[in-house]
Amino acid sequence: MLNNNPKYYNLFFLLFITCLTYAQNTANGKITDAKTSKEISSVDIFINDSTEPFLKTSGGSFSVQSDSIIYKLKFSKKNYSPETVTITPETADNIFVKLSQEKENTIAEIVIHNEKTKYKNKKENPAYAIMQEVWKRKRNNGLEKFDTYTYKEYEKIQFDANNLDSAFMSKKIFNKLDFIFDYADSTASGKIGLPIFLNESIYENFGENKPGKKIKRLLVAQKTSGFQDNQVITITAKNLYRDINIYDNTLNYFDIGFPSPVGTNGFSTYDYNLTDTISIHSENAYKIRYQPKRKDVLAFQGYLYIDTDSYAVLGATLKSTQKINVNFINSISTELEYDNPDENTFLPKKFITEIELTPFAKKRTSKSIIAKRSVDYSQYEFNKPLDDKVFTRREEEYDAKFVDKDDAYWVQARPDSLSKSEQGVYEMLDKLQQTPKFNRIVKIYETLASGYYNAFKGIDIGPIFSIYGKNEVEGDRIRLGARTYFGQNDPWRAQFYTAYGFKDQQVKYGAEARYMFNRVNRFMIGAGTKRDIEQLGVQLTTDDGIMARTFASSTLFARGENASLSSINKTNIFASIEPWKNFQVRVDGTLQSIKSANPEKFSLMYYRDGDLRKTLNDSHVTLSLIARPGAKFSQTGVDRYEHGTLAPTIILKYTRGIEGLFNGDFNYNRLQFMFYKPVLIGSWGKTLISFEAGKTFDNVPLGLQNVIPGNQSYSLAQNTFAQLNYYEFVADTYSTLHLEHHFNGKILSFIPLIKKLKLREIAFIRSAYGTLSDASKAINVDGFKYSAPSEQIYFEYGFGIENIGIGNLRIFRVDFNWRGNYLDRPGISTFGIKAGFQVGF
């Protein structure tokens, strides 16, 4: 089963783009004596922050080529002052380096540890004593100590395609698009580096710590190369990055935990060496080199710069190892710079992160894109009175025109001017937007990412992945649908579908319309109706949405027969509002009739006032409170794109069934609660926690009962029990707990040969407990068949292997599931295998 969570659409885009590009970093030039202008040989060249020379020149010319990003070259020769050159795509070719001879009295002895020094124990290591002082003085973000604060944030994100050549440029795909190479830069190897995307954003940040905690991050300007109206690429870029704090024990990259070299448990992962004492911004600093003890773990290598007096972190470099086990990622590089206003706090100053992305392999010649993000923090002000209106959401914040600024504004707003290649990106992408072929390529991506094909202006056909299905009642099933779509910030949307089953020869349909009145509080109303065949009982905390369809109704491959399908006629109206950010209040009114779609094999018949009924009529009102603290969204329309975060989902629902309203058969009250949260457990991976509990306070028939969700398909399905049959457990009162831990290869990396496969292990356990009253059983004709897991807590457990694939393309997962108890029941499966696609880092 394909994971179709919208937050992974950015990965589809990256795969789509990077299939067209190569990455490799080169630089070349000459080295001469500054006084005599004669060429110099036997010069050691260091790449980036390496302490080992990459090359010793044999003549006056040099050429270096690396499989990682080159952003700095250092040139060193005895009796000469070392020289450092910053490398950019514009300056990598024909570098002219002049070395000056040192005067004898200025030469100081500097010991560079090219190999890590071995100590009998860590207490003998001088770096350990320094890091102990850092831990004792562990600093907090200085923003927390002031009553109020404001600061400005400038963010720049750029994508560069690297290692292009003439053969690549002549490919058929670039017919009528070859003008883009006018904006490319030549490198020493004859290859081409092409900037393909640039986004700039200006934010104003406001915070209040006393008397109450308030935070506001206001986007005041944004400029995107050619995609100002289509934010899909901008979202892709921004979703790659997370904010990090070097003092935390765990650093979050792609929602994967990396141990911090400044964390209090750093010595369990890293070796540290004190290499030098240098000056940074007029401050003396210890330069400490760190590297992981094991190269095949998720960890970094680089340098820490620690103030010699205050033991504050002035800066840090973090570079991933060559064996980084993250999908679609070849390397990560981060530079951090901090201000330290006092001995207890720090303030972010500048962060730069470069990510090399490839779709398939981690080879030097792999196709890749370099995604670079730089953030500058400035204009800090503290304890300045802030009006409460600053923290109030305003309509203009959600207007796309609110971020329109002219070129003069950007010249003033940027900390540094754009390079020539960066300036060219805007012009190039604007031209591409006018090219029909380019627009067709973008349309293909949008179709694959959204599942909808734009057939006419404002009309999309889809979802294309739901066209075909199969179940026991309908046999082969064809489904066609459409929706209105004028843009990602549409305030209204209408959509419908129709389906036909070739076995039951019945037409099904569904239609829904929604309209949003206010972008600030997202006040929205909607209505819809449908008639369809569904598998009930595969989800506990359901919604009343019309367009949703359960996976089990169209399962192509399953264990055993699935006859327990229902025929549903449903009409729904709803209203929702967000009185506070990321907190939604929703009220639904629903009318539905439910009957068995396969009466010969599955009965939903029940007794009401002594009469035997086969169709259940239900009228109910549902109040839902939905909290998503910390979630981030990109659009402001009726549908929103959610960024990948570790934000929890908390839902509290109350449902009231009303007898007699539109022929409703039952009065009932139901209360439900759901909590879901991904949690990083340091370098040991990530745990997914899902807890649900609920109670129906009145006796209702099977069609309205709480069914512990089973999964008879061979596909992966979140929050279901792999070894339960449909309707095996039914409960008036229930609670379920799902714990799933992803180790990110932590254990398998210890096993020779196996570790080369870069597989990742998963462990999980699922449990359910509930009760079902005799009165609820007696309502149903087949009530004797149903029971709850009340004798003991039902549980199942198992392990999985994920990250199965080739190179960087590792999107397959297999789970092995065992049933823990209730083994004496007929027709059960004690062991099962589930498999599916899982797109993620």
Automatic annotation (TrEMBL):
Gene3D superfamilies: Carboxypeptidase-like, regulatory domain (2.60.40.1120). Residues 1-23 form the signal peptide. The lineage of its organism: Bacteria, Pseudomonadati, Bacteroidota, Flavobacteriia, Flavobacteriales. Keywords: Carboxypeptidase, Hydrolase, Protease, Signal. Pfam families: DUF5686. This is Carboxypeptidase-like regulatory domain-containing protein. It comes from Chryseobacterium antibioticum. One of its GO terms (molecular function) is carboxypeptidase activity. The keyword Protease applies.
